[in-house]
Protein backbone atom coordinates (compact mmCIF):
# COMPACT_ATOMS: atom_id res chain seq x y z
CA UNK A 1 0.00 0.00 0.00
CA UNK A 2 2.38 2.62 -1.23
CA UNK A 3 2.03 5.89 -3.08
CA UNK A 4 1.58 5.18 -6.77
CA UNK A 5 1.09 7.01 -10.04
CA UNK A 6 -1.87 4.76 -10.80
CA UNK A 7 -5.28 6.38 -10.83
CA UNK A 8 -7.99 5.47 -8.37
CA UNK A 9 -11.64 6.48 -8.66
CA UNK A 10 -13.50 6.60 -5.36
CA UNK A 11 -17.04 5.18 -5.44
CA UNK A 12 -18.88 8.33 -4.37
CA UNK A 13 -16.45 11.20 -4.72
CA UNK A 14 -17.72 14.64 -5.60
CA UNK A 15 -15.37 14.79 -8.63
CA UNK A 16 -13.86 11.78 -10.36
CA UNK A 17 -10.92 13.86 -11.53
CA UNK A 18 -10.11 14.80 -7.94
CA UNK A 19 -10.42 11.18 -6.85
CA UNK A 20 -8.15 10.05 -9.66
CA UNK A 21 -5.26 12.12 -8.34
CA UNK A 22 -5.16 10.60 -4.85
CA UNK A 23 -2.21 8.54 -3.67
CA UNK A 24 -3.24 4.90 -3.88
CA UNK A 25 -3.27 2.39 -1.05
CA UNK A 26 -1.62 -0.34 -3.10
CA UNK A 27 -1.80 -3.85 -1.56
CA UNK A 28 1.70 -4.62 -2.90
CA UNK A 29 3.31 -1.95 -0.71
CA UNK A 30 2.82 -0.90 2.90
CA UNK A 31 0.47 1.35 4.80
CA UNK A 32 3.45 3.01 6.47
CA UNK A 33 4.85 4.19 3.13
CA UNK A 34 1.48 5.69 2.18
CA UNK A 35 1.27 7.54 5.50
CA UNK A 36 4.86 8.73 5.06
CA UNK A 37 3.99 10.00 1.58
CA UNK A 38 0.95 12.01 2.65
CA UNK A 39 2.81 13.46 5.64
CA UNK A 40 5.35 14.95 3.24
CA UNK A 41 2.65 16.95 1.44
CA UNK A 42 2.84 20.57 2.71
CA UNK A 43 0.01 22.03 4.80
CA UNK A 44 -1.63 25.06 3.17
CA UNK A 45 -1.68 28.49 4.74
CA UNK A 46 -5.16 29.94 5.41
CA UNK A 47 -5.01 32.47 2.57
CA UNK A 48 -3.75 29.92 0.06
CA UNK A 49 -6.53 27.57 1.11
CA UNK A 50 -9.19 30.25 0.55
CA UNK A 51 -7.79 31.13 -2.87
CA UNK A 52 -7.77 27.53 -3.99
CA UNK A 53 -11.31 27.02 -2.70
CA UNK A 54 -12.50 30.08 -4.66
CA UNK A 55 -10.81 28.79 -7.82
CA UNK A 56 -12.61 25.48 -7.48
CA UNK A 57 -15.97 27.04 -6.56
CA UNK A 58 -16.00 29.79 -9.19
CA UNK A 59 -14.11 28.20 -12.09
CA UNK A 60 -14.33 24.46 -11.36
CA UNK A 61 -10.53 24.34 -11.27
CA UNK A 62 -9.85 20.67 -10.56
CA UNK A 63 -6.16 21.28 -9.98
CA UNK A 64 -7.10 23.57 -7.08
CA UNK A 65 -9.44 20.91 -5.69
CA UNK A 66 -6.69 18.32 -5.95
CA UNK A 67 -4.29 20.51 -3.99
CA UNK A 68 -6.90 21.06 -1.29
CA UNK A 69 -7.51 17.32 -0.98
CA UNK A 70 -3.81 16.39 -1.00
CA UNK A 71 -2.94 18.87 1.72
CA UNK A 72 -5.50 17.30 4.08
CA UNK A 73 -4.79 13.59 3.53
CA UNK A 74 -2.60 13.54 6.66
CA UNK A 75 -5.61 14.72 8.68
CA UNK A 76 -7.69 11.79 7.37
CA UNK A 77 -4.99 9.41 8.63
CA UNK A 78 -5.09 11.13 12.03
CA UNK A 79 -8.87 10.72 12.29
CA UNK A 80 -8.76 7.10 11.08
CA UNK A 81 -6.29 6.16 13.82
CA UNK A 82 -8.90 7.15 16.38
CA UNK A 83 -11.12 4.29 15.16
CA UNK A 84 -8.53 1.50 15.25
CA UNK A 85 -10.22 0.03 18.33
CA UNK A 86 -13.11 -1.28 16.24
CA UNK A 87 -10.92 -3.98 14.72
CA UNK A 88 -11.20 -2.84 11.10
CA UNK A 89 -8.22 -2.33 8.76
CA UNK A 90 -6.74 1.16 9.08
CA UNK A 91 -6.24 1.29 5.30
CA UNK A 92 -9.99 0.82 4.74
CA UNK A 93 -10.82 3.54 7.24
CA UNK A 94 -8.42 5.91 5.48
CA UNK A 95 -9.97 5.20 2.09
CA UNK A 96 -13.46 5.90 3.46
CA UNK A 97 -12.20 9.08 5.10
CA UNK A 98 -10.70 10.22 1.79
CA UNK A 99 -14.14 9.93 0.23
CA UNK A 100 -15.55 12.14 2.97
CA UNK A 101 -12.73 14.65 2.44
CA UNK A 102 -13.52 14.94 -1.27
CA UNK A 103 -17.19 15.45 -0.53
CA UNK A 104 -16.25 18.21 1.92
CA UNK A 105 -14.01 19.96 -0.63
CA UNK A 106 -16.85 19.98 -3.13
CA UNK A 107 -19.18 21.67 -0.62
CA UNK A 108 -16.69 23.97 1.13
CA UNK A 109 -17.48 27.71 1.11
CA UNK A 110 -14.32 29.79 1.76
CA UNK A 111 -16.41 32.86 2.60
CA UNK A 112 -17.72 31.33 5.84
CA UNK A 113 -14.50 32.18 7.67
CA UNK A 114 -13.59 28.62 8.78
CA UNK A 115 -10.70 26.41 7.77
CA UNK A 116 -11.37 23.45 5.54
CA UNK A 117 -10.16 21.04 8.20
CA UNK A 118 -12.90 22.21 10.61
CA UNK A 119 -15.55 21.74 7.94
CA UNK A 120 -14.22 18.46 6.54
CA UNK A 121 -13.94 16.59 9.84
CA UNK A 122 -17.70 16.02 9.95
CA UNK A 123 -17.76 14.55 6.42
CA UNK A 124 -14.70 12.39 7.11
CA UNK A 125 -16.14 10.99 10.33
CA UNK A 126 -19.53 10.39 8.70
CA UNK A 127 -18.00 8.16 6.01
CA UNK A 128 -15.93 6.26 8.57
CA UNK A 129 -18.94 5.81 10.85
CA UNK A 130 -21.00 4.39 8.00
CA UNK A 131 -18.19 1.99 7.08
CA UNK A 132 -17.75 0.84 10.69
CA UNK A 133 -21.46 0.23 11.21
CA UNK A 134 -21.68 -1.82 8.03
CA UNK A 135 -18.60 -3.94 8.69
CA UNK A 136 -18.17 -4.24 12.45
CA UNK A 137 -20.57 -7.15 12.76
CA UNK A 138 -22.38 -9.49 10.38
CA UNK A 139 -25.65 -8.34 11.97
CA UNK A 140 -26.20 -4.58 12.08
CA UNK A 141 -25.53 -3.34 15.59
CA UNK A 142 -26.95 0.17 15.20
CA UNK A 143 -29.72 1.36 12.88
CA UNK A 144 -31.48 4.28 14.60
CA UNK A 145 -29.95 7.68 15.32
CA UNK A 146 -29.89 7.00 19.06
CA UNK A 147 -28.20 3.61 18.55
CA UNK A 148 -25.52 5.14 16.33
CA UNK A 149 -24.80 7.78 18.95
CA UNK A 150 -24.54 5.12 21.65
CA UNK A 151 -22.33 2.88 19.51
CA UNK A 152 -19.62 5.52 19.17
CA UNK A 153 -19.90 7.01 22.66
CA UNK A 154 -20.80 4.20 25.06
CA UNK A 155 -17.32 2.70 25.37
CA UNK A 156 -15.79 6.12 25.94
CA UNK A 157 -18.38 6.76 28.65
CA UNK A 158 -17.45 3.62 30.62
CA UNK A 159 -14.94 4.24 33.39
CA UNK A 160 -14.20 0.57 34.12
CA UNK A 161 -14.48 -2.92 32.73
CA UNK A 162 -17.68 -4.86 33.30
CA UNK A 163 -21.33 -3.96 32.99
CA UNK A 164 -22.61 -0.49 33.83
CA UNK A 165 -24.40 -0.12 37.14
CA UNK A 166 -27.72 1.72 37.47
CA UNK A 167 -26.08 5.05 38.29
CA UNK A 168 -23.73 4.84 35.30
CA UNK A 169 -26.60 3.88 32.98
CA UNK A 170 -28.57 6.94 34.11
CA UNK A 171 -25.53 9.20 33.62
CA UNK A 172 -24.86 7.92 30.09
CA UNK A 173 -28.53 8.23 29.14
CA UNK A 174 -28.60 11.80 30.43
CA UNK A 175 -25.36 12.82 28.72
CA UNK A 176 -26.35 11.37 25.34
CA UNK A 177 -30.04 12.28 25.60
CA UNK A 178 -31.30 8.73 25.10
CA UNK A 179 -33.40 6.38 27.23
CA UNK A 180 -31.87 4.05 29.81
CA UNK A 181 -33.41 1.10 27.96
CA UNK A 182 -31.47 2.04 24.83
CA UNK A 183 -28.23 2.27 26.84
CA UNK A 184 -28.73 -1.24 28.27
CA UNK A 185 -29.67 -2.67 24.88
CA UNK A 186 -26.59 -1.21 23.17
CA UNK A 187 -24.29 -2.41 25.97
CA UNK A 188 -25.67 -5.91 25.44
CA UNK A 189 -25.07 -5.68 21.68
CA UNK A 190 -21.50 -4.46 22.13
CA UNK A 191 -20.77 -7.31 24.55
CA UNK A 192 -22.04 -9.99 22.17
CA UNK A 193 -20.10 -11.80 19.46
CA UNK A 194 -21.01 -13.20 16.05
CA UNK A 195 -21.39 -16.98 15.88
CA UNK A 196 -21.46 -18.90 12.62
CA UNK A 197 -24.79 -20.67 12.20
CA UNK A 198 -23.37 -23.91 10.84
CA UNK A 199 -19.92 -24.35 12.41
CA UNK A 200 -18.58 -27.90 12.20
CA UNK A 201 -18.33 -30.07 15.28
CA UNK A 202 -14.55 -29.60 15.30
CA UNK A 203 -14.94 -25.80 15.26
CA UNK A 204 -17.28 -25.98 18.24
CA UNK A 205 -15.04 -28.36 20.20
CA UNK A 206 -11.83 -26.40 19.62
CA UNK A 207 -13.19 -23.01 20.59
CA UNK A 208 -14.39 -21.44 23.81
CA UNK A 209 -17.49 -20.04 22.13
CA UNK A 210 -20.95 -21.49 22.74
CA UNK A 211 -22.16 -24.11 20.24
CA UNK A 212 -23.37 -22.80 16.91
CA UNK A 213 -27.17 -22.52 16.48
CA UNK A 214 -27.15 -25.36 13.96
CA UNK A 215 -26.03 -27.67 16.79
CA UNK A 216 -29.27 -27.31 18.71
CA UNK A 217 -31.89 -25.68 16.47
CA UNK A 218 -33.27 -28.97 15.21
CA UNK A 219 -36.80 -29.79 14.03
CA UNK A 220 -38.26 -32.50 16.24
CA UNK A 221 -40.65 -33.61 13.49
CA UNK A 222 -38.97 -33.36 10.11
CA UNK A 223 -35.81 -32.34 8.32
CA UNK A 224 -36.14 -28.66 7.27
CA UNK A 225 -35.07 -29.44 3.70
CA UNK A 226 -37.82 -32.06 3.34
CA UNK A 227 -40.36 -29.66 4.84
CA UNK A 228 -39.35 -26.95 2.37
CA UNK A 229 -39.52 -29.42 -0.52
CA UNK A 230 -43.03 -30.51 0.45
CA UNK A 231 -44.23 -26.93 0.86
CA UNK A 232 -42.77 -26.04 -2.53
CA UNK A 233 -44.53 -29.01 -4.15
CA UNK A 234 -47.79 -28.03 -2.45
CA UNK A 235 -47.52 -24.47 -3.76
CA UNK A 236 -46.81 -25.80 -7.24
CA UNK A 237 -49.87 -28.05 -7.16
CA UNK A 238 -52.11 -25.23 -5.93
CA UNK A 239 -50.91 -23.08 -8.82
CA UNK A 240 -51.71 -25.88 -11.27
CA UNK A 241 -55.16 -26.32 -9.72
CA UNK A 242 -55.91 -22.63 -10.04
CA UNK A 243 -54.83 -22.72 -13.68
CA UNK A 244 -56.98 -25.79 -14.38
CA UNK A 245 -60.07 -24.25 -12.74
CA UNK A 246 -59.60 -21.10 -14.79
CA UNK A 247 -59.88 -23.17 -17.99
CA UNK A 248 -63.27 -24.68 -16.98
CA UNK A 249 -66.61 -23.13 -17.86
CA UNK A 250 -68.41 -21.31 -15.04
CA UNK A 251 -70.87 -24.12 -14.25
CA UNK A 252 -68.21 -26.83 -14.18
CA UNK A 253 -65.97 -24.67 -11.99
CA UNK A 254 -68.83 -24.05 -9.54
CA UNK A 255 -69.67 -27.75 -9.34
CA UNK A 256 -66.05 -28.79 -8.67
CA UNK A 257 -65.58 -26.03 -6.10
CA UNK A 258 -68.74 -26.88 -4.15
CA UNK A 259 -68.25 -30.64 -4.40
CA UNK A 260 -64.52 -30.87 -3.61
CA UNK A 261 -62.91 -27.62 -2.57
CA UNK A 262 -65.19 -26.33 0.18
CA UNK A 263 -63.82 -27.41 3.58
CA UNK A 264 -67.30 -27.43 5.12
CA UNK A 265 -70.89 -27.84 3.91
CA UNK A 266 -70.10 -29.59 0.64
CA UNK A 267 -72.98 -29.79 -1.83
CA UNK A 268 -74.55 -33.10 -2.93
CA UNK A 269 -75.33 -34.03 -6.52
CA UNK A 270 -79.02 -33.47 -5.81
CA UNK A 271 -78.39 -30.00 -4.33
CA UNK A 272 -76.63 -28.94 -7.52
CA UNK A 273 -79.22 -30.67 -9.73
CA UNK A 274 -81.99 -28.67 -8.07
CA UNK A 275 -80.06 -25.42 -8.53
CA UNK A 276 -79.28 -25.94 -12.22
CA UNK A 277 -82.61 -27.65 -13.10
CA UNK A 278 -81.09 -30.87 -14.39
CA UNK A 279 -80.84 -34.43 -13.14
CA UNK A 280 -78.33 -35.60 -10.57
CA UNK A 281 -76.88 -37.90 -13.26
CA UNK A 282 -76.20 -34.88 -15.48
CA UNK A 283 -74.37 -33.15 -12.62
CA UNK A 284 -72.27 -36.30 -12.16
CA UNK A 285 -71.36 -36.30 -15.88
CA UNK A 286 -70.34 -32.62 -15.78
CA UNK A 287 -68.28 -33.29 -12.66
CA UNK A 288 -66.57 -36.29 -14.27
CA UNK A 289 -65.65 -34.33 -17.42
CA UNK A 290 -64.31 -31.43 -15.33
CA UNK A 291 -62.16 -33.78 -13.26
CA UNK A 292 -60.64 -35.25 -16.44
CA UNK A 293 -59.66 -31.74 -17.58
CA UNK A 294 -58.10 -30.99 -14.19
CA UNK A 295 -56.10 -34.24 -14.28
CA UNK A 296 -54.76 -33.20 -17.67
CA UNK A 297 -53.64 -29.89 -16.16
CA UNK A 298 -51.72 -31.80 -13.48
Describe the structure.
The chain starts with 15 loop residues before the first helix and ends with a helix. 63% of the residues lie in helices and 0% in strands. With 298 residues, it is mainly alpha-helical. α3 packs antiparallel against α4 and α14 packs across α15. 21% of the residues are buried. The protein has 3 domains: 120 residues, Four Helix Bundle (Hemerythrin (Met), subunit A) (Up-down Bundle); 76 residues; 74 residues, Winged helix-like DNA-binding domain superfamily/Winged helix DNA-binding domain (Arc Repressor Mutant, subunit A, Orthogonal Bundle), CATH 1.10.10. The protein is built from 15 helices and no strands. The N terminus is likely disordered.
Keywords:
mainly alpha, Four Helix Bundle (Hemerythrin (Met), subunit A), Arc Repressor Mutant, subunit A, disordered N terminus
Amino acid sequence: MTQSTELVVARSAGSSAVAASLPVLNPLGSLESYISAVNRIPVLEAESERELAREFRDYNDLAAAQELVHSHLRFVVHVARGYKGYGLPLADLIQEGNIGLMKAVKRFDPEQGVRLVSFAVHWIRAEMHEFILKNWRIVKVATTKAQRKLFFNLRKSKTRLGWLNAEEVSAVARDLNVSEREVLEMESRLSGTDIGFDLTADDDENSHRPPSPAAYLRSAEEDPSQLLEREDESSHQLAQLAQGLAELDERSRDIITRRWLKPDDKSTLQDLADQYGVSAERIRQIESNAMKKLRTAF
